[in-house]
Amino acid sequence: MEKVIVVLSGGLDSTTCMAIARAAGKEIYPLTFAYGQKHTVELEAARQVASYYGVSGRHKIINLEGLLSGSALTDADKEIPTGRSISEIGRVIPSTYVPARNIVFLALALAQAEPLDARAIYLGVNALDFSGYPDCRPEFISAFQEVINKGTAAGVEGHGIRIETPLIHLTKAEIIKTGIKLGAPYHLSYSCYQGSVPSCGTCDACLLRLKGFQEAGVTDPIPYRNKG
């Protein structure tokens, strides 16, 4: 059974990646990052998703508190945007962009993967219904794959570690349909940038999630304070 790292935030996309990796028969090692995000509720969601798949014993949470900043997701003096129209989301790089986040996440996932002899890192990035982050684009993934190929023993020896991004060219509705088909536990997932319980329903993450469920013709199983 091939070992894989799944970067598990606890959100909808990473939960779908867990379902895809499980359906492919992989031995999953979930990896979650506590980076000072305001929505720390997602850490508990990640724990619950890992438990649902029976891999709590292999689930690792890495504390990066104080390392990442410069974002509305991490800085107290920056407000998380709410109430934006779907057409506005993704038009420009938003204030919720966290500088170097996926660079750091992939580097640390790679540091976990190589000693485990894991063959892939699953990352739930998406370049269609997304918030406009530059580190979610195919160009970034291709560039980091080259880093792995040229900067690791595994890569030099010809059995490198793949970055698997099964959602990158899917809409949110397509992601949700895929997850439902595979039994993804969306009822345990959490997406709200505000960190509110129930989810706010007005931040970019909530709006994109709700749009996806609506277009998929399925009811989102988590509660919201506001549904637009």
From TrEMBL:
<dbReference type="GO" id="GO:0016879">
    <property type="term" value="F:ligase activity, forming carbon-nitrogen bonds"/>
</dbReference>
<feature type="binding site">
    <location>
        <position position="200"/>
    </location>
    <ligand>
        <name>Zn(2+)</name>
    </ligand>
</feature>
<protein>
    <recommendedName>
        <fullName>7-cyano-7-deazaguanine synthase</fullName>
        <ecNumber>6.3.4.20</ecNumber>
    </recommendedName>
</protein>
<feature type="binding site">
    <location>
        <position position="192"/>
    </location>
    <ligand>
        <name>Zn(2+)</name>
    </ligand>
</feature>
<dbReference type="GO" id="GO:0008270">
    <property type="term" value="F:zinc ion binding"/>
</dbReference>
<feature type="binding site">
    <location>
        <position position="206"/>
    </location>
    <ligand>
        <name>Zn(2+)</name>
    </ligand>
</feature>
<keyword id="KW-0547">Nucleotide-binding</keyword>
<comment type="function">
    <text>Catalyzes the ATP-dependent conversion of 7-carboxy-7-deazaguanine (CDG) to 7-cyano-7-deazaguanine (preQ(0)).</text>
</comment>
<comment type="similarity">
    <text>Belongs to the QueC family.</text>
</comment>
<dbReference type="GO" id="GO:0008616">
    <property type="term" value="P:tRNA queuosine(34) biosynthetic process"/>
</dbReference>
<dbReference type="GO" id="GO:0005524">
    <property type="term" value="F:ATP binding"/>
</dbReference>
<feature type="binding site">
    <location>
        <begin position="8"/>
        <end position="18"/>
    </location>
    <ligand>
        <name>ATP</name>
    </ligand>
</feature>
<keyword id="KW-0436">Ligase</keyword>
<keyword id="KW-0671">Queuosine biosynthesis</keyword>
<comment type="subunit">
    <text>Homodimer.</text>
</comment>
<keyword id="KW-0479">Metal-binding</keyword>
<comment type="pathway">
    <text>Purine metabolism; 7-cyano-7-deazaguanine biosynthesis.</text>
</comment>
<keyword id="KW-0067">ATP-binding</keyword>
<keyword id="KW-0862">Zinc</keyword>
<dbReference type="Pfam" id="PF06508">
    <property type="entry name" value="QueC"/>
</dbReference>
<dbReference type="InterPro" id="IPR018317">
    <property type="entry name" value="QueC"/>
</dbReference>
<feature type="binding site">
    <location>
        <position position="203"/>
    </location>
    <ligand>
        <name>Zn(2+)</name>
    </ligand>
</feature>
<dbReference type="InterPro" id="IPR014729">
    <property type="entry name" value="Rossmann-like_a/b/a_fold"/>
</dbReference>
